[in-house]
Amino acid sequence: MVEQGVSDHEIHIKYEDQEKINQFARYNSKLLDIKDELITKNKELQNLTDAAQDVEELELSEESFPFQLGEVFVEMTADQTRDMIDTYKGKLNDEVKGLQNKSAELESLMKGLKSELYGKFGSAINLEYD
After folding, report:
1. 114, 120 in Cβ contact below 8 A?
2. Of 8, 23, 53, 73, which one is least surrounded by beta carbons within 10 A?
3. What is the mean pLDDT of residues 97-101?
4. Taking the model in full, what pTM does it have?
5. Are the beta carbons of 68 and 85 closer than 8 angstroms?
């Protein structure tokens, strides 16, 4: 009589290995959040670039431009508007660089965990994150 429920492919996972799998999942979740945030920040940068072009095009015909600060619009000259746009773009660029660095760090950590776990479990585990 053959025992059912136990196969040749059943793998026993140690607590430490399960912790590594869980850590990989946490890193993956953070990475997806960062990638979403990067998409949002890049859209904001594009909007600021478009706004700067609009200011350049309208500078000769307009004396002042409405600039949104929080929930309030403030009238500014073209030079003031350009300066504010440049300031916001600088801040956004710094945030994007920080997010990209964090993303690269997480991907490196995930790659290490992935190679370690695949080395131990082979094709019995799936750690694809893309």
Report:
1. no
2. 8
3. 98
4. 0.79
5. no
